[in-house]
Design a protein that fits this description.
- InterPro entries: DUF3817_TM (IPR023845).
- It is found in: Cell membrane.
- With about 120 residues, the protein is mostly helical.
- Helix 1 runs antiparallel to helix 2 and helix 1 runs antiparallel to helix 4.
- The longest helix has about 35 residues.
- The relative contact order is 0.19.
């Protein structure tokens, strides 16, 4: 019975993927936190009919910028990890669904670490 081991990943490729994964993880968490803040702000304004201070508008703006960075980080990691279009799409869309960016980030981190033999 032969035991097959996964092919060794070149250290330079591991380094590039590890860097892309780190950027992706930070972007996913920042996007997720701003999205949760945005949801709280919208519930307070539209459901509870509370008056929002003018600075609260920045929550939406910052989430928008964070999401753009998240999309770029997703593209960067997806290219380096050679994701399928379905994986790219589900990863990208998770930045606009509350709590999903945290779940998807954990799944992608696990998958990428396993596939590229990252410690």
């Amino acid at each position: 019975m032969s035991t097959q081991t996964a092919p060794k990943i070149h250290p330079e490729r591991q380094k590039r993927v590890r860097t892309a994964l780190s950027i992706f993880s930070v972007a996913a968490w920042v996007t997720g936190v701003f999205l949760l803040l945005l949801v709280v702000r919208m519930v307070m304004e539209y459901v509870l009919d509370m008056e929002m201070p003018t600075w609260a508008t920045w929550v939406a703006i910052l989430h928008g910028w964070a999401y753009m960075i998240y999309l770029l980080a997703t593209l960067n990691l997806g290219l380096k990890a050679r994701w399928t279009p379905v994986v790219w799409f589900t990863t990208a869309i998770s930045g606009v669904v509350p709590f999903l960016s945290f779940i998807v980030e954990a799944n992608r981190r696990r998958e990428v670490k396993e596939k590229f033999q990252l410690a």
